[in-house]
Amino acid sequence: MNLGAKRLRDYLERRHLTQREFSVAVETSEATISRIVNEGSIPDVGLCVRIKQYTDGYVVPEDWTKKNPENIIASKTA
């Protein structure tokens, strides 16, 4: 599982935010957030920065990179 997707999904659930509400807040489409949450895509750098800002650092760009130990473990088991 992608840590970025997992953390973003968790953030939305904890804050009782819909993907639509979040997409408006970070200035992207609802479809883009859906793809990210469902691990169909990875956000570009600009969107990563906006997600980090909106979530007050709960979801950070490193969550989508191999620099994150959880992603390294997941990619080795896949």
Which helices and strands appear, and what pairs or packs with what?
Elements: H1 3-14, H2 19-25, H3 30-37, H4 45-54, H5 69-77
Q: Provide the gyration radius in Å.
A: 12 Å
Q: Which word captures the global form?
A: globular
Number of strands: 0
Order of helices and strands: HHHHH
Q: State the end-to-end CA separation.
A: 9 Å
- What is the share of helical residues? 55-70%
The stretches of 5 or more residues where confidence is low (pLDDT under 50) are: none
Instruction: Please give the count of helices.
Output: 5
Chain-averaged pLDDT: 88
Structure classification: mainly alpha
Q: Major sheet, described briefly?
A: none
Question: What does this protein structure show overall?
Answer:
The protein has 78 residues and is mainly alpha-helical. The protein has helices spanning 3-14, 19-25, 30-37, 45-54, 69-77. Helix 2 crosses helix 3.
